[in-house]
Amino acid sequence: MLEDEENLDLDLQSRYAQFREATQPALDGAADLWQSYTARTSDLAFQLCEQLRLILSPTHATRMKGDYRTGKRLNMRQIIPFIASDFAKDKIWLRRTKPSARRYQVLLSIDDSKSMAHSRTAHLAMQTVTLLSSALTKLEVGDISICRFGRHMDILHGFGEQSFSRHDGARMISSMSFGQRSTDVLKLLQSSLSYLADARSNQSTSGTGELWQLQIIVSDGMCEDHDRLRCLLRQANENRVVVVFVILDALNDPAPAGAAESASQPQQQQRSSILSMNRVSYQSDSQGKMELKMERYLDTFPFDNFVIVRDVQSLPDVLSATLRQWAERVNAA
């Protein structure tokens, strides 16, 4: 059974690699791929949905709750005590003050740079985005937006549009080229924070100032300007924006048999795991001389909320654990 699952996964990876290498990929082929990815991750999407249901509590009041002295609907259970008290116990009205619906704004950001072009990494990225979008849609989390980024950020599915459908998924798959020359995470955060601020101001619900927005970045974890990124992340936290970085660490996995690879990918396959990568910097000592300093890359990683994913099977548990820690910190504050 496990071998059959692996063969199905490798077959889907090969189909997606062939689709990416087509000169003019057909939208029908993208729709079939999206449906296949949805079917492959449906159980995991349900698992993640149920875990997020316990973490992302309802925020929008749609159910009646009482008792109030004024309102638009009577609480029939209080009518007899109201009459028996000689009309003194007049808290007999209901209001829509009981939270029962979720109205979050979630932005999924997908790395579209060349560092993601390895067939296994691109395949894992599509699995991750399909799983996340399906789980959030099942949960009815609120408003979902999807963007791609590299040198700049492009919105593929905006806030306020209809729920993410098969057509939207096919359009997203067709739009991902994994060909942008750089991964500018700093520029992504600058653009996304502005985009989320506009989305917050355009939301026509009461109490939007207390709304926490969520941005999930799906990338291989390569970023620069760590100090400036920390400043932006502090700004995001002040603006009630939670940023979670999903690091795809699949470059050391073997490519499936028959999967087409471009000429530039053998060098990418040799790149070590992000867990063993080091970051080199120069710092001045007490005498003013420059000395070389080497640190583990993840020790200097600017994102507090991040998960490392090598297999999509682990994503529901690690992502929900990270969001649960964030929710506990928010409740404690």
Automatic annotation (TrEMBL):
Protein name, entry field: VWFA domain-containing protein
Gene Ontology process terms (BP): ribosomal large subunit assembly; ribosomal large subunit export from nucleus
KW Nucleotide-binding (keyword) present: yes
Source organism of this protein record: Tilletiaria anomala (strain ATCC 24038 / CBS 436.72 / UBC 951)
Keywords: ATP-binding, Nucleotide-binding
Top-level taxonomic group: Eukaryota
Record-annotated VWFA domain positions: 105-323
Gene Ontology CC: one annotated term: preribosome, large subunit precursor
Chain positions covered by the region annotation Disordered: 257-276
Gene Ontology MF terms: ATP binding
InterPro entries from the UniProt entry: VWF_A (IPR002035), vWFA_dom_sf (IPR036465)
